[in-house]
């Protein structure tokens, strides 16, 4: 495959030209007209991501609510729980401010209803995701050609984990968007770095700095890219002192000013984050995995059936720079004890780009063979092997994406939507959550300033000390009886059915009666099966 002769960074339209196929063959690709410009590509991606966001109705990770929307709700409306991280100053307000602005707009337009409060944040995130999809397409076009770009975008939109996770309001999702945009502008990631416009690298540095401000661990990605640029660039001093230093200081100053405004004192979040997560291994409090987990379980699960296509694409393309980035990120994150799928989300699109390369190569090879043999079936849009590959990928990823987005662990989202509506009708006075901490959304979904109480799980200064959540899970009945001695009697109690059996006698003795039950999951995750979420209401006087 021949390399592109010229790359235009700020182009309004992508010049779609396939150097491996004849003009006659290109005319047989009506589906490519859908992506004949950046605007069309963006619009198609936006429509699909907005639908994607509406289909995501399940609970995945507490940080989606507790480290983003809950903080944003506190900023916008003056109430919302701030977890211990915000008291220790290891989180920046930059990311929650995005959604706080959205909440303010909704309130001004009198649209802060239960439906909009639960759906609007993911719809906003879907807009960011569409930009990420566009830049994956543009990056694939620059590194390879438009043929590969089409299939890279297909892989990104079809992959089950991208569908399941990308439109969620996690800081990792926005980090992924910024990674795709930023990598596009870094000359060192191109096939011909010297042919990039002069302003390209400045944009890349600015976006990298913003990504690190939003999520400090993003520095792992940009360390690789920055060192590669330093090795390949001829103007190293200019790069360090006239680009990285001033842009980095500017973004750091902006972050510090925002955090000074919100915290009420000067806070250097990246330093606090580094101390807690790296120097003291604070993240290990939430569980650890074997060092090889990302290579043997985490990343393969995220790629799912795209895995063999991605590996084939890496081998065939011989593009070691993006391949090296994936290996670098997985390798460094493997050093940390605490591991999660979402931590390596930013390099998943890069792996899917290689999947697109292998599918494009397969299609090109079959088209060439068909032409040489003079086959009467040369007019078929998708050769047989490609059709089988597409069918295989669609039939495995779509059911997985829909099941995980619509069914698995949806009860904790449904129960808060229900309680929000009940609170709007003045049927809820206070709520107690007798379940593991952060198992449901909170004020950002309820959107009523009612007293609520959940079981705390903040890390203790003394090792070995059990938090409330752990003590409850060890003996629900005893914990509840002790807790009720000094409680303010709630009007509603929420729990999983797995603990309900132990608490039934306690609930009856305190005049609570079941009023609603919501399906939650068919399969257990890391505890006993939590099949449903149950709501009990106080029936006494």
UniProtKB/TrEMBL annotation:
UniProt-recorded name of the protein: Mannosyltransferase
Any one Gene Ontology cellular component term annotated for this protein: endoplasmic reticulum membrane
Keyword Cytoplasm listed: no
EC number: 2.4.1.-
Assigned protein family: Belongs to the glycosyltransferase 22 family.
Pfam families: Glyco_transf_22 (PF03901)
PANTHER family: GLYCOSYLTRANSFERASE (PTHR22760), GPI MANNOSYLTRANSFERASE 3 (PTHR22760:SF4)
Gene Ontology molecular-function annotations: alpha-1,2-mannosyltransferase activity
Transmembrane segment boundaries: 160-185, 205-225, 237-254, 291-313, 343-365, 386-406
Keyword Endoplasmic reticulum (UniProt): yes
InterPro entries linked to this entry: GPI_mannosylTrfase
Alphabetically ordered keywords of this record: Endoplasmic reticulum, Glycosyltransferase, Membrane, Transferase, Transmembrane, Transmembrane helix
GO biological process: GPI anchor biosynthetic process
Membrane topology field: Multi-pass membrane protein
Subcellular location field: Endoplasmic reticulum membrane
């Amino acid at each position: 495959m021949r390399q592109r002769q010229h790359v235009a960074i700020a182009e309004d339209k992508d010049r779609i030209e396939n150097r491996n196929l004849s003009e006659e063959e290109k005319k047989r690709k009506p589906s490519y007209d859908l992506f004949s410009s950046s605007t069309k590509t963006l619009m198609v991606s936006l429509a699909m991501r907005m639908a994607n966001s509406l289909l995501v109705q399940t609970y995945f990770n507490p940080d989606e609510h507790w480290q983003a929307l809950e903080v944003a709700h506190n900023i916008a409306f003056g109430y919302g729980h701030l977890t211990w991280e915000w008291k220790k100053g290891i989180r920046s307000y930059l990311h929650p401010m995005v959604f706080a602005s959205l909440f303010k707009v909704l309130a001004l337009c009198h649209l802060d209803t239960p439906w909009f409060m639960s759906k609007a944040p993911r719809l906003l995130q879907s807009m960011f995701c569409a930009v990420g999809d566009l830049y994956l397409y543009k990056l694939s076009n620059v590194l390879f050609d438009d043929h590969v770009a089409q299939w890279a975008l297909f892989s990104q939109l079809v992959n089950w984990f991208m569908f399941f996770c990308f439109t969620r309001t996690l800081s990792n999702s926005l980090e992924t968007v910024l990674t795709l945009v930023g990598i596009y502008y870094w000359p060192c990631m191109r096939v011909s770095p010297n042919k990039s416009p002069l302003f390209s690298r400045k944009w890349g540095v600015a976006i990298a700095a913003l990504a690190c401000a939003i999520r400090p661990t993003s520095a792992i990605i940009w360390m690789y890219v920055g060192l590669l640029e330093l090795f390949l660039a001829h103007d190293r001093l200019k790069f360090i002192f006239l680009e990285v230093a001033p842009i980095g200081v500017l973004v750091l100053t902006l972050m510090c000013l925002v955090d000074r405004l919100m915290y009420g004192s000067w806070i250097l979040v990246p330093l606090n984050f580094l101390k807690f997560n790296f120097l003291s291994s604070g993240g290990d409090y939430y569980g650890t995995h074997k060092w090889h987990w990302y290579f043997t379980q985490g990343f393969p699960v995220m790629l799912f059936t795209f895995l063999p296509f991605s590996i084939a694409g890496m081998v065939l393309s011989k593009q070691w720079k993006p391949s090296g980035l994936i290996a670098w990120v997985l390798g460094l994150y493997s050093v940390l004890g605490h591991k999660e799928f979402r931590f390596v989300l930013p390099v998943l699109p890069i792996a899917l780009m290689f999947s697109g390369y292998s599918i494009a190569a397969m299609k090109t090879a079959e088209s060439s063979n068909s032409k040489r043999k003079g086959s009467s079936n040369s007019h078929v849009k998708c050769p047989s092997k490609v059709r089988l590959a597409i069918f295989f990928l669609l039939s495995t990823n779509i059911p997985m994406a829909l099941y995980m987005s619509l069914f698995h662990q949806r009860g904790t989202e449904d129960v808060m939507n229900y309680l929000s509506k009940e609170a709007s009708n003045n049927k809820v006075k206070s709520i107690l959550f007798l379940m593991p901490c952060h198992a449901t959304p909170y004020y950002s979904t309820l959107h009523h300033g009612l007293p609520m109480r959940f079981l705390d799980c903040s890390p203790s200064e003394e090792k070995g000390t059990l938090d409330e959540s752990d003590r409850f899970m060890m003996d629900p009945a005893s914990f509840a009886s002790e807790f009720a001695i000094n409680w303010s009697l709630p009007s509603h109690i929420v729990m999983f059915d797995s603990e309900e059996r132990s608490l039934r006698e306690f609930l009856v003795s305190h005049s609570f009666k079941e009023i609603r039950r919501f399906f939650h999951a068919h399969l257990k995750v890391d505890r006993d099966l939590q099949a449903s979420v149950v709501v009990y209401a106080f029936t006494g006087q």
